[in-house]
User: Fold this.
Amino acid sequence: MLSELFMHRVYDSLNSKTFRSSDFSISQARSNDSAKTGNITLTIRYRYKKEFHIVAILNRSQCDNVAISPGQIMKIDIKNNLAIHDFLTTTIPTWLSTLTKYFDNDPYTRRVLKNEQRIDELEKKIDEALGDLDQDFLEDEIILLKERLNNMEKELTEKLNQQIQDQETLNVKIEEIHQDVQTLKNQAGPLDKKNWLLSFYTKLYLWNESNPSLLPKSLLHVGYKFLPESVQNVIPSEIIDSTVDSLLPESTVEKDTVKHK
Assistant:
C-alpha cells in the first residue's frame, strides 16, 4: 500500500485557497493485477459532489493511468504515464482549479442552459403557430417597424433611467437594449416575418430575464401586428400572447401600456 509519507503529500496537495483536504475522501486499493505489477488504485473524491474525482493507478515510479472528473475539456480527462511528482504538483492543483471554476461558473451555466431551453420552447411554439409562413416584410412595413422599434427603445430607456441609480450599470443596460433594437431593425429585411418574430420574442425574453420589471405587457403585440392580415385572421393574437406568456410569466411583466403608433 502507499506510504504515510506519500499520503501526507497527497493530503497537502489538496489544500488550496478554496479547498481543504477534509473536503475530499481518499481511498486506496490494490489493483487486480497488483500481485504482478504492484499497482495501487488511489481514489480522491470530492465529498459533496461524488462524481468529481481523480482515480489514479500508481506504481513505484509513475502513474500509469489517471482519470480526472471534471476534466478541462471532457467530462472525464484521461492521462497516461505521469510522473509521480507531476501528479502531485500539477495534476491535482489543476483539478482543484477546474473545480473552483466550475463552482464560480455554475450559476451562469445554469442560467444559460435555462435560457437555451426556454428559447427552444419558444421557437417550437412559434413554428407550430405560424407553420410554413415565410412571407418577407414589405418596404412600408419595414419603415413602420423601425419607427415602432425606435419608440420602444426610447420608452424602455426612459424606464431604465427611472429604475437604475448606478450610472455605470445604467449605461450598460441602455447599450444592450440599443444594440438589440439595432439588430431587430437590421433583421427586418433579411429575415422573413416568422423568423423575425422569433428573434423579437427571444430578445423580449432575455430583456425580461435581465430586467424583470422593465417590460410592459403591450410589447407582446408589437411584432404580431406585422403579420399579414390573412394570417392574423387565422391565428388569433391570443395564441401569440399565450406563447410569450409561457416564457414571460404574468408576475414578472408589468401591465402598464406603451403606445406604439
